[in-house]
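Q: Can I borrow your eye for a moment on a structure tokenisation matter? Would you mind producing a protein record, from residues through to fold? Write it directly below this note and I will take it from there.
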Amino acid sequence: MSIDFQIIDHAIAHIIIDRPERHNALDVEHDRALAGAWKRFNDDPQLKVAVLSARGGRAFCTGADIGNYLTYRRELAESDAPTSIISFGGLTGAGDVSKPTIAAIDGICVAGGLELALACDIRLATPESTFALPEVRLGILPGGGGTQRLAKVAGMGVAMRMILTGDTFDASFALNHGLVTELVPKAGLEAAALKIARQIAGNGPLAVIAARRAVLASHDLTLEAGLFEESTLQRLLLRSRDAREGATAFVERRPAAYIGS
């Protein structure tokens, strides 16, 4: 199986797509394997944050393996099965993962690969990386959340430009329009992603989960509803042992010993 799952510092999951001979495209088998890796991460309370990357240096992920995965999806479309949300690789559905995720992108990041990246909370990329949602050129649309997430990340105009033309864009375009958070030299990409992951893992775990939830909710809620959600989560946090420990550790000038309660 070409999905590697590594645990770093007992708190960070490093999930690696390892199909460089297929430009890290996912067939049905590897789509399910990646979904299993995300479930493992999500279900393990010791793991606080995940980094998604790929091997080979040429491609982060080129999406679905057309000869296998699209045949599978077409058979489902032609069956009597009810329409359901497509979760590509177990990450692009609604709320598949409840903990922070970081995409470390090096190389071609297109189609489902870009949809995987857009489903992550933080995206780093090398200057050589390229980005596209070219599905319309195959007579389909970006079906792993691309039509929904790209506009929220980069704006309606950028989303329409990318999706309706299928054009490929460079890393500078991606950085300027919010597709990625920052550009990192190839040699330092993994270290940069792990540095951020360690910072996240060292913070109060309840606070991280609640803050992430509040930020994600801002996409769909009115300001008033979002502020109420924020206040509700803050109230729960202020009652926690971790909040008391965080304040005490700050006053005592020592690292906080969070236990997640």
Remarks:
- The chain has a mean pLDDT of 93.
